[in-house]
Amino acid sequence: MTGDRPPRWGLWGESDERGALNLVTPERVLTALALVTEGRILSLSQPIGPAESTAPHRPNTARFMMRDAGDYAAGARSPDGFRFAEDIVQLSTHNGTHVDALSHAWCGDELYNGHPARIVRSTTGAARLGAEKLLPVLTRGVLLDLVGLYGQPLAPRTSVEPADLQRAYERAGLAPEAGDAVLIRTGWWESASPHDYFDNEPGVSGPAAAWLADQEVSLVGADNYAVEVQPSVEGQTFPGHLALIHAAGVPMLENLALAELAAAGATAFLFVFAPIPLQGSTGSPIQPLAVL
Amino acid sequence: MTGDRPPRWGLWGESDERGALNLVTPERVLTALALVTEGRILSLSQPIGPAESTAPHRPNTARFMMRDAGDYAAGARSPDGFRFAEDIVQLSTHNGTHVDALSHAWCGDELYNGHPARIVRSTTGAARLGAEKLLPVLTRGVLLDLVGLYGQPLAPRTSVEPADLQRAYERAGLAPEAGDAVLIRTGWWESASPHDYFDNEPGVSGPAAAWLADQEVSLVGADNYAVEVQPSVEGQTFPGHLALIHAAGVPMLENLALAELAAAGATAFLFVFAPIPLQGSTGSPIQPLAVL
Amino acid sequence: MTGDRPPRWGLWGESDERGALNLVTPERVLTALALVTEGRILSLSQPIGPAESTAPHRPNTARFMMRDAGDYAAGARSPDGFRFAEDIVQLSTHNGTHVDALSHAWCGDELYNGHPARIVRSTTGAARLGAEKLLPVLTRGVLLDLVGLYGQPLAPRTSVEPADLQRAYERAGLAPEAGDAVLIRTGWWESASPHDYFDNEPGVSGPAAAWLADQEVSLVGADNYAVEVQPSVEGQTFPGHLALIHAAGVPMLENLALAELAAAGATAFLFVFAPIPLQGSTGSPIQPLAVL
Amino acid sequence: MTGDRPPRWGLWGESDERGALNLVTPERVLTALALVTEGRILSLSQPIGPAESTAPHRPNTARFMMRDAGDYAAGARSPDGFRFAEDIVQLSTHNGTHVDALSHAWCGDELYNGHPARIVRSTTGAARLGAEKLLPVLTRGVLLDLVGLYGQPLAPRTSVEPADLQRAYERAGLAPEAGDAVLIRTGWWESASPHDYFDNEPGVSGPAAAWLADQEVSLVGADNYAVEVQPSVEGQTFPGHLALIHAAGVPMLENLALAELAAAGATAFLFVFAPIPLQGSTGSPIQPLAVL
User: Fold this and answer.
1) Is the interface score ipTM higher than 0.90?
2) What is the pLDDT of residue D2?
């Protein structure tokens, strides 16, 4: 931010750490619940585990078995016959299907809402705006299915503009509502090879991200690894993250799986967001749900 | 298991890996949604992070910052002004608020439903019944508030019996229904010191666990670290885990925070269960929700 | 092992966990020290860190900064001006320059010297023959420089036979002595691309490994990732590991850097082996030294 | 550093990253080798593994088995009968017996020799003065046995002063020589309980550390966790680290085991220092050796 303070900062108080999740009022929860007709629950998660590929600068997810059936086969004691297995998981909070906490991205010396960036340190993690501050919500989910709109997965590097999003809303027969969790289907997860997935993705432009924030969305997600188009437009770096997370306090959901939701013909539905409240983390793995 | 195959095995097919979560039918989802009147969302998570204590045989949760604001303060490049922070989290899938997957506990050579135990190995993790097989559900949650019933937190080592659970149901004005997520409040989380928390907890007895399974619950949770009373009755080791996970395919939710839910006067409510689908893990961190 | 117990087992007692390192007697230490004329110390380590490539089935080395200068730049307190940085390292004990402990490889149900394999478990690590049992030694090092002998790096998949080793000894003007640490230079580390390094390496055959054991060596190392030729001869898998580690109790040193040693014209020299005594590990990182 | 640049900075060039290890010339290596009479090798390592206690702000060492004998007992494939076990080790580079690299401690904005502190970051580790820059050395080791001198282990919080060190040199019949690795036995490792070990240790004072640096030592080690007395004198924090590492470029060896060396009656001996060249780390585990 060179100069102007984003208009949303301070809207929910100077100490607010919840951002756009504040938009999910009890009324909107009730409205969202009323959308359910079938009682059918869909997971929007991509697989998460050691076998999944990750962005090159992040280590793979690792799972370490601390006790397993092999130990008993090799003679470990099982008191009264009881046996158990347990493991440790090590994962980047930005691998797999996850939410970016509001401490994840910024410019200048301030995070969202003017919180000083310097509180994000090796020793403390994100002392403010960590993943544990993300409010879990049930709200209206809206699928903006660009694959359906354009008849095919978006090509690499395709920039999704405000007009594309508006057209997708119209095709769904919906208008934006405050508190919406907007899920954008680019088709990237299904169409890119694991090797290409972390480069040149289609996604929202900076203006499209800003447009979404203006619609008062609570969450924005997509079926790619950064929601926004890569590479960014010349002279900007991750403008979508700055427009959503930094200026507007909107957490971003990355690496969603949206094909099944699209196949179900879903447009508006109950969306469930229950991240792990990891203290001081800059993100959290999630299993987002759509309930039809 | 001394001989007999548990009657529930095979009920949902020989290859079933979902267990009692199968009981949450679309009808039950709809019924549970209808319980919501206020649109108020309560998290049932205890804090999770490096500062929290853990059982002695499990390492503490760790958070490693891979990039943070300090790096920029020390001169790291921020292209076009963009900055970000990210971290890696390492946690036992049985620390903090979590769900035990159906591969977590067994006796003999078979896991729940007769899956061979030998598929749980260092190299593969739980090749069946891993956390990624847990069905996310929205279902009716029932709070069995033993603190309210007895006027104080249960004393260390208190064994909760079927009659206690029945009394708590009655006090709540409810009868068990198939698919219920049953949450048992012992008061242990609020009353035990962090140092004492992992020993001598009050909790359900083996018979009480079996009684819950007989009520066709989908999930059983408690505000202690193992749901069941510790130490176990002489001659048995973790009989509650065997009755629920192994015999009946009921995932267990441990280290819940239930005081706020009790204070809200909740008895039956919409319960949200959205674990992280960690491939091959024996459990998953969760943020369970109650919606009033 | 199909049947016969290897002749060396029991040689140093039924409970021996030191294997061929027993061959380094005080006399041999003194003899080796007497080889030094210049007081020049050469490291035989390849670089070890997050930037180095690893075999595909092993995760990369990771370094996590727990406190660094950035934290102070971002405002961390420095009492009386004191500042410090610290990190955590996570590494496969078989990545980078390392020694294979005697618990690393076996066939059948017994490790070296008849120790039961079942003591190597998830819960305990290698309860016997772990890295902490490796005796640190100073002994005579011998460089068998096959690159010098054949005028170029060995081609991929080249099998080094006993006759090659004998020729290299002769070229060096040396005869094998009990307790030697034998270092075999194939040229693989210098000639293979990082991408190819973990496949098709030239190295010793099973018979060459057995020949080395018969010379009563204390250690065998090479400038490749497995000492022995890859792939193994049809019908055998890692016969060199079985001949050295399992049958003869000879620890193996992998991923050495030997070019500088060869350039120095070294043939026999003081060799320093000081592994980290990691309790229960199957190997250890090392910085082996040659002193000329 | 408030003002004056330490006199040693620049002594070995402005870009020097080796510090006092430069003092170990080939001549001194030869002199040290000549001290050996028996060919007897003593390890000076305390045990290192998951069972060992650590300072409260550092996580315990962890060992994760990636493959073990249990996996084979549970049915894992062993091609041609070959079996292997491997593990991953995760450790603080300042737990257990280790060396502090010259990037570990400083004051102001400069590390040893004026290297800018800002190169020690989360993203890069210690881009200069990392553990991989530590020169492995063989040099004269000197045991300053304060337990022998005073007839018992030093009491908690005992400050070891220059006069104590001089007296110990005299008792050993030795005078300081440039390049010495000085090992100070306080008796703390043998006398403190694991619980007390990380508090109130006896050790060198700031002036004693400075006196050692003035003797042109190459390394200073002790049988406690920080070499210097804890707590530090009022108004200073870790003055010994600043005098040795920051001002004089002397790496410090912590958590040594010196009882066996003292029992052997050793005073001057060949000392072997072969740290793991961990790129960008602030320290390294080691197995230091004394050769008598």
Assistant:
1) yes
2) 47
